[in-house]
Design goal:
Helix content of chain A: 40-55%
Oligomer: homodimer
Strand order of the largest sheet of chain A: 1-3-2
Number of helices of chain A: 6
Largest sheet of chain A: 3 strands, antiparallel
Structural class of chain A: alpha+beta
Radius of gyration of chain A: 16 Å
Shape of chain A: elongated
Mean pLDDT of chain A: 87
Strand content of chain A: 5-15%
Chain lengths: 120, 120
DNA sequence: CACGGAGATTGACAGCTGTCAATATTGACG
DNA sequence: CGTCAATATTGACAGCTGTCAATCTCCGTG
Protein backbone atom coordinates (compact mmCIF):
# COMPACT_ATOMS: atom_id res chain seq x y z
CA UNK A 1 0.00 0.00 0.00
CA UNK A 2 1.23 3.44 -0.80
CA UNK A 3 0.87 6.27 1.60
CA UNK A 4 -2.28 8.15 1.03
CA UNK A 5 -2.98 11.44 2.66
CA UNK A 6 -6.65 11.18 1.88
CA UNK A 7 -7.44 7.73 3.11
CA UNK A 8 -11.06 7.33 4.05
CA UNK A 9 -11.13 4.65 6.67
CA UNK A 10 -13.89 4.61 9.18
CA UNK A 11 -12.38 5.19 12.57
CA UNK A 12 -13.42 1.70 13.50
CA UNK A 13 -11.18 0.30 10.80
CA UNK A 14 -8.42 2.54 12.05
CA UNK A 15 -8.26 0.39 15.13
CA UNK A 16 -8.67 -3.06 13.70
CA UNK A 17 -5.16 -2.98 12.35
CA UNK A 18 -3.31 -2.26 15.56
CA UNK A 19 -1.78 -4.48 18.14
CA UNK A 20 -2.43 -3.49 21.74
CA UNK A 21 -0.73 -0.48 23.24
CA UNK A 22 1.57 -2.54 25.42
CA UNK A 23 2.58 -4.92 22.67
CA UNK A 24 4.70 -2.66 20.52
CA UNK A 25 5.20 1.08 20.12
CA UNK A 26 2.32 2.65 18.27
CA UNK A 27 3.31 4.26 14.99
CA UNK A 28 2.67 7.95 14.54
CA UNK A 29 0.24 7.10 11.80
CA UNK A 30 -1.75 4.70 13.94
CA UNK A 31 -1.75 7.10 16.86
CA UNK A 32 -3.14 9.87 14.72
CA UNK A 33 -5.92 7.62 13.49
CA UNK A 34 -6.86 6.36 16.93
CA UNK A 35 -6.72 9.60 18.89
CA UNK A 36 -9.85 11.09 17.26
CA UNK A 37 -11.84 8.06 18.36
CA UNK A 38 -10.77 8.50 21.95
CA UNK A 39 -11.33 12.21 21.66
CA UNK A 40 -14.91 11.51 20.66
CA UNK A 41 -15.31 9.50 23.84
CA UNK A 42 -13.48 11.91 26.11
CA UNK A 43 -16.41 14.13 27.06
CA UNK A 44 -18.79 13.60 29.96
CA UNK A 45 -21.89 14.33 27.90
CA UNK A 46 -20.83 12.01 25.10
CA UNK A 47 -19.94 9.27 27.56
CA UNK A 48 -23.41 9.48 29.04
CA UNK A 49 -25.01 9.63 25.61
CA UNK A 50 -23.17 6.53 24.47
CA UNK A 51 -23.99 4.76 27.71
CA UNK A 52 -27.64 5.73 27.44
CA UNK A 53 -27.87 4.36 23.93
CA UNK A 54 -25.82 1.24 24.62
CA UNK A 55 -27.74 0.31 27.72
CA UNK A 56 -31.16 0.95 26.23
CA UNK A 57 -33.40 -2.07 26.21
CA UNK A 58 -33.88 -2.31 22.47
CA UNK A 59 -30.24 -1.50 21.82
CA UNK A 60 -31.18 1.79 20.27
CA UNK A 61 -32.50 5.11 21.47
CA UNK A 62 -34.46 7.95 19.92
CA UNK A 63 -32.96 11.39 19.92
CA UNK A 64 -36.13 12.73 21.45
CA UNK A 65 -35.47 10.65 24.56
CA UNK A 66 -31.82 11.63 24.70
CA UNK A 67 -32.59 15.32 24.62
CA UNK A 68 -34.70 15.01 27.73
CA UNK A 69 -31.94 13.31 29.69
CA UNK A 70 -29.77 16.43 29.75
CA UNK A 71 -30.14 20.02 30.68
CA UNK A 72 -28.56 21.09 27.46
CA UNK A 73 -29.97 22.67 24.36
CA UNK A 74 -31.17 20.45 21.53
CA UNK A 75 -28.46 21.66 19.13
CA UNK A 76 -25.80 20.77 21.65
CA UNK A 77 -27.04 17.20 21.98
CA UNK A 78 -27.31 16.99 18.22
CA UNK A 79 -23.71 18.13 17.97
CA UNK A 80 -22.46 15.50 20.40
CA UNK A 81 -24.39 12.77 18.61
CA UNK A 82 -22.80 13.86 15.38
CA UNK A 83 -19.32 13.63 16.87
CA UNK A 84 -19.99 10.12 18.16
CA UNK A 85 -21.49 9.10 14.84
CA UNK A 86 -18.63 10.44 12.78
CA UNK A 87 -16.20 8.61 15.02
CA UNK A 88 -18.06 5.39 14.23
CA UNK A 89 -19.17 4.83 17.79
CA UNK A 90 -22.85 5.40 17.07
CA UNK A 91 -24.85 4.22 14.08
CA UNK A 92 -27.65 6.39 12.79
CA UNK A 93 -31.05 5.19 11.62
CA UNK A 94 -33.68 7.63 10.52
CA UNK A 95 -37.25 6.37 10.63
CA UNK A 96 -39.75 8.95 9.55
CA UNK A 97 -39.25 12.08 11.55
CA UNK A 98 -37.41 10.30 14.31
CA UNK A 99 -33.75 9.35 14.42
CA UNK A 100 -32.49 6.34 16.32
CA UNK A 101 -28.93 5.73 17.39
CA UNK A 102 -27.29 2.39 18.10
CA UNK A 103 -23.88 1.80 19.70
CA UNK A 104 -21.28 0.12 17.53
CA UNK A 105 -20.22 -2.97 19.44
CA UNK A 106 -17.24 -3.55 17.19
CA UNK A 107 -15.90 -0.07 17.69
CA UNK A 108 -16.12 -0.39 21.45
CA UNK A 109 -14.59 -3.86 21.41
CA UNK A 110 -11.77 -2.63 19.20
CA UNK A 111 -10.99 0.24 21.51
CA UNK A 112 -11.03 -1.98 24.57
CA UNK A 113 -8.69 -4.53 23.06
CA UNK A 114 -6.34 -1.80 21.97
CA UNK A 115 -6.16 -0.49 25.50
CA UNK A 116 -6.09 -3.67 27.50
CA UNK A 117 -4.32 -5.97 25.11
CA UNK A 118 -7.11 -8.51 25.15
CA UNK A 119 -7.49 -10.23 21.83
CA UNK A 120 -10.71 -9.19 20.04
CA UNK B 1 -4.08 27.71 40.51
CA UNK B 2 -6.00 26.20 43.37
CA UNK B 3 -5.54 22.62 44.40
CA UNK B 4 -9.21 22.88 45.06
CA UNK B 5 -10.38 19.40 44.25
CA UNK B 6 -12.14 18.13 47.30
CA UNK B 7 -12.34 14.54 46.22
CA UNK B 8 -9.03 12.78 46.41
CA UNK B 9 -9.66 9.77 44.29
CA UNK B 10 -7.01 8.72 41.88
CA UNK B 11 -8.53 8.60 38.44
CA UNK B 12 -7.96 4.89 38.50
CA UNK B 13 -10.34 4.58 41.41
CA UNK B 14 -12.80 6.73 39.55
CA UNK B 15 -13.28 3.84 37.20
CA UNK B 16 -13.29 0.91 39.55
CA UNK B 17 -16.73 1.79 40.77
CA UNK B 18 -18.51 1.76 37.43
CA UNK B 19 -20.30 -0.92 35.57
CA UNK B 20 -19.59 -1.07 31.85
CA UNK B 21 -20.98 1.57 29.54
CA UNK B 22 -23.53 -0.75 27.99
CA UNK B 23 -24.76 -2.13 31.28
CA UNK B 24 -26.58 0.87 32.68
CA UNK B 25 -26.63 4.59 31.98
CA UNK B 26 -23.57 6.31 33.36
CA UNK B 27 -24.33 8.86 36.04
CA UNK B 28 -23.27 12.43 35.45
CA UNK B 29 -20.90 12.13 38.35
CA UNK B 30 -19.23 9.02 37.00
CA UNK B 31 -19.01 10.48 33.52
CA UNK B 32 -17.28 13.56 34.81
CA UNK B 33 -14.76 11.46 36.68
CA UNK B 34 -14.01 9.19 33.74
CA UNK B 35 -13.84 11.74 30.94
CA UNK B 36 -10.54 13.27 32.12
CA UNK B 37 -8.92 9.86 31.97
CA UNK B 38 -9.98 9.38 28.37
CA UNK B 39 -9.01 12.94 27.61
CA UNK B 40 -5.51 12.17 28.82
CA UNK B 41 -5.39 9.30 26.36
CA UNK B 42 -6.97 11.15 23.46
CA UNK B 43 -3.85 12.68 21.98
CA UNK B 44 -1.58 11.11 19.39
CA UNK B 45 1.61 12.04 21.21
CA UNK B 46 0.35 10.74 24.53
CA UNK B 47 -0.88 7.53 22.92
CA UNK B 48 2.58 6.94 21.52
CA UNK B 49 4.25 7.87 24.80
CA UNK B 50 2.09 5.44 26.74
CA UNK B 51 2.64 2.75 24.15
CA UNK B 52 6.39 3.34 24.19
CA UNK B 53 6.52 3.01 27.95
CA UNK B 54 4.12 0.07 28.14
CA UNK B 55 5.88 -1.91 25.45
CA UNK B 56 9.38 -1.26 26.77
CA UNK B 57 11.25 -4.39 27.68
CA UNK B 58 11.77 -3.61 31.34
CA UNK B 59 8.25 -2.23 31.67
CA UNK B 60 9.58 1.23 32.24
CA UNK B 61 11.25 3.92 30.16
CA UNK B 62 13.54 6.83 30.90
CA UNK B 63 12.42 10.29 29.88
CA UNK B 64 15.72 10.78 28.11
CA UNK B 65 14.78 7.98 25.69
CA UNK B 66 11.25 9.28 25.23
CA UNK B 67 12.42 12.73 24.27
CA UNK B 68 14.45 11.33 21.41
CA UNK B 69 11.48 9.47 19.98
CA UNK B 70 9.66 12.65 19.00
CA UNK B 71 10.42 15.77 17.07
CA UNK B 72 9.00 17.89 19.84
CA UNK B 73 10.63 20.11 22.40
CA UNK B 74 11.60 18.67 25.77
CA UNK B 75 9.05 20.80 27.67
CA UNK B 76 6.28 19.52 25.44
CA UNK B 77 7.14 15.89 26.17
CA UNK B 78 7.42 16.73 29.84
CA UNK B 79 3.97 18.28 29.69
CA UNK B 80 2.41 15.22 28.07
CA UNK B 81 4.06 12.91 30.59
CA UNK B 82 2.63 15.04 33.37
CA UNK B 83 -0.86 14.77 31.93
CA UNK B 84 -0.59 10.99 31.70
CA UNK B 85 0.84 10.80 35.20
CA UNK B 86 -1.83 12.98 36.75
CA UNK B 87 -4.47 10.85 35.09
CA UNK B 88 -2.99 7.80 36.79
CA UNK B 89 -1.98 6.14 33.55
CA UNK B 90 1.77 6.49 34.15
CA UNK B 91 3.67 6.01 37.37
CA UNK B 92 6.73 8.14 38.05
CA UNK B 93 9.98 6.97 39.56
CA UNK B 94 12.91 9.30 39.99
CA UNK B 95 16.29 7.65 40.32
CA UNK B 96 19.11 10.11 40.68
CA UNK B 97 18.94 12.57 37.87
CA UNK B 98 16.84 10.33 35.69
CA UNK B 99 13.10 9.80 35.77
CA UNK B 100 11.46 6.56 34.76
CA UNK B 101 7.83 6.06 33.86
CA UNK B 102 5.83 2.86 34.08
CA UNK B 103 2.36 2.21 32.67
CA UNK B 104 -0.40 1.49 35.17
CA UNK B 105 -1.82 -1.87 34.18
CA UNK B 106 -4.82 -1.48 36.45
CA UNK B 107 -5.79 1.86 34.96
CA UNK B 108 -5.66 0.46 31.46
CA UNK B 109 -7.55 -2.66 32.45
CA UNK B 110 -10.19 -0.57 34.18
CA UNK B 111 -10.68 1.60 31.15
CA UNK B 112 -10.93 -1.37 28.84
CA UNK B 113 -13.52 -3.11 30.98
CA UNK B 114 -15.54 0.05 31.22
CA UNK B 115 -15.63 0.33 27.44
CA UNK B 116 -16.09 -3.24 26.40
CA UNK B 117 -18.17 -4.53 29.26
CA UNK B 118 -15.73 -7.25 30.18
CA UNK B 119 -15.71 -7.84 33.91
CA UNK B 120 -12.46 -6.70 35.55
C1' DC C 1 32.06 24.46 45.94
C1' DA C 2 31.03 25.25 41.09
C1' DC C 3 29.64 23.43 37.02
C1' DG C 4 26.80 20.79 33.81
C1' DG C 5 23.06 18.13 32.41
C1' DA C 6 18.18 15.97 33.21
C1' DG C 7 13.80 17.23 33.74
C1' DA C 8 10.03 20.48 35.34
C1' DT C 9 7.79 24.99 35.36
C1' DT C 10 6.24 29.46 33.48
C1' DG C 11 4.32 32.54 30.13
C1' DA C 12 2.65 33.39 25.69
C1' DC C 13 0.00 32.33 21.69
C1' DA C 14 -2.66 29.99 18.06
C1' DG C 15 -6.07 26.61 17.24
C1' DC C 16 -9.60 23.69 18.79
C1' DT C 17 -14.10 22.68 21.34
C1' DG C 18 -18.49 22.94 23.97
C1' DT C 19 -22.33 25.78 24.27
C1' DC C 20 -26.28 28.54 22.86
C1' DA C 21 -29.63 31.35 19.88
C1' DA C 22 -31.30 31.59 15.47
C1' DT C 23 -32.43 29.36 11.39
C1' DA C 24 -32.85 25.63 8.05
C1' DT C 25 -34.45 21.05 6.65
C1' DT C 26 -37.28 17.20 6.58
C1' DG C 27 -41.31 14.29 6.94
C1' DA C 28 -46.21 13.47 8.78
C1' DC C 29 -50.76 14.91 8.60
C1' DG C 30 -54.65 17.78 8.21
C1' DC D 1 -50.64 22.58 -0.33
C1' DG D 2 -49.66 24.59 4.61
C1' DT D 3 -48.57 23.80 9.13
C1' DC D 4 -46.27 21.54 12.84
C1' DA D 5 -42.88 18.84 15.19
C1' DA D 6 -38.23 16.52 15.18
C1' DT D 7 -33.28 17.12 14.02
C1' DA D 8 -29.62 19.38 11.82
C1' DT D 9 -26.83 23.35 10.55
C1' DT D 10 -24.78 27.96 11.11
C1' DG D 11 -22.50 31.64 13.50
C1' DA D 12 -20.62 33.52 17.52
C1' DC D 13 -18.03 33.35 21.68
C1' DA D 14 -15.62 31.87 25.88
C1' DG D 15 -12.59 28.53 27.66
C1' DC D 16 -9.45 24.88 27.09
C1' DT D 17 -5.11 22.71 24.98
C1' DG D 18 -0.77 21.72 22.49
C1' DT D 19 3.40 23.93 21.46
C1' DC D 20 7.66 26.52 22.10
C1' DA D 21 11.38 29.62 24.22
C1' DA D 22 13.14 30.90 28.40
C1' DT D 23 14.02 29.81 32.95
C1' DC D 24 14.22 27.12 37.11
C1' DT D 25 15.35 23.08 40.25
C1' DC D 26 17.82 19.29 41.47
C1' DC D 27 21.57 16.06 41.58
C1' DG D 28 26.04 13.92 40.37
C1' DT D 29 30.76 14.80 39.47
C1' DG D 30 35.17 17.10 38.91
Amino acid sequence: MSKSTTLSLTPVQAIACCSPLAREPLSQDAAERIAPLLKALADPVRLRLLSLVASHESGEACVCDLNDAFELSQPTISHHLKVLHEAGLLERDKRGVWVYYRASASALAGLASLISGTAP
